Amino acid sequence: MRRSAPTLALCLAVAGITGITGLTGCTAPDTEPPPAPAGLTAQAGSATSVHVMWDAAADRDGVTGYQVFEADRLVRELPAEKTMVDITGLAPQTGYAFTVRAKDAAGNLSGPGPAARATTPAAKAEDRTAPTAPAATTARATGPRSAQVSWTAATDDTGVTAYDVYQGGVRIHTAGPGESATALNNLRPDTVYTFTVRARDGADNSSPDAPAVDVTTPPASGDGPGTAPAGFAATASPGTVTLTWTAPDTGGETIEYELYVNGLPTTVIQFGAGAVPSGRAEHRLTVAEPAGTVWAVKLRARLPDGNWGSFSAERRITLVA
Known about the structure:
Elements: E1 8-15, E2 19-27, E3 41-46, E4 49-53, E5 63-70, E6 73-79, E7 84-87, E8 95-104, E9 116-119, E10 137-143, E11 146-151, E12 160-167, E13 170-175, E14 181-184, E15 192-201, E16 213-216, E17 230-237, E18 240-246, E19 256-261, E20 264-270, E21 280-286, E22 294-301, E23 315-318
Antiparallel strand pairs: 1-2, 3-4, 4-7, 5-6, 5-8, 8-9, 10-11, 11-14, 12-13, 12-15, 15-16, 17-18, 18-21, 19-20, 19-22, 22-23
C-alpha cells in the first residue's frame, strides 16, 4: 500500500470551566503524493502535434487524474482512465519536453519524473496525399497482459512520421517512423484483441488500415481455460448478416451468447435444448439498415457460473442491399 493507515487525532471540545463536554474523532489530512507515472514516451505525430503516453497507475496509488506539462507549462488535464493524449498547436521543427504528474483525491501531485522529448518535423504545405497502408501486420501475445504487433513499412510522398496502432477502432499506441514493431502492455488476460495499423505523415494524413490481426492473450495463472468464442466471422449478404464461431471450452454446452454491435449490446442469441451446435455455431440476423452501414460486431458466451466470458474478436462489415 502506498499510504499508511490514517493517523487519528482526537479533537477535544472544552466548554467553560466545567471541563470536557464533547469528544470528536478526526482524521489527519492526506498530504502524501502518489508516485510519478512510469513509462512516459513522446512521439511527434505531425509538424504540429506530439503523442504523449504513460503507464496507468496502480489502484493502490489512489490516482484520480493526470496533469501533462510541456516544460513548466500545464497543457492538459485528464481523468485517471486516460493514459495518452495528443498535444496539438505546436511549432514545426521544434524540440519539446513533456512530463506527467499524477493527482490524487486530496489534490496531492506527484513529482514529474523523467521528461520525454520529441522534435516535430518540418511542415509540408498543402500535403493532402495519405501514406500507403502497411502491406502486412503480424502479432503475438507475449504474456497474459502484453502483446507485440509488427508491420511492414508504408510509403508517402513527403515521408511517414508515425505509425498508429488501433484496437476496436480506437487508437491505443503511436510508434515512430523508423519502427516496424511495438510492445503493447496493460492488456487483459484471456481476451481476444483485433489490431490494425495506420501510417501517418507530417500533415496528419492517415493511411487506410493495414490488414487486421487477432491476438488472444492467455489466461493468467489460475484463470483456467479461455472463455472467448474462437474463430468469430461475420458475413453480410442482402438483408442478412451471418455470424459463425466455435464455442469456448466451458466444461459443458454453451447455449447463450450476447451480441454487441458498434460497442452496444444488441441481442442475446440462445440455442434451445437439443439444438446446441457441437462444432461451429451459426446465427443469421435479418437487418433493415440501409446498404453501406458499417457494423462492428463481437460476442461473448454465458459461462456455467452465470457470468459473461471474454469477447470474441471484433469484425467490421458493411451491410449490402
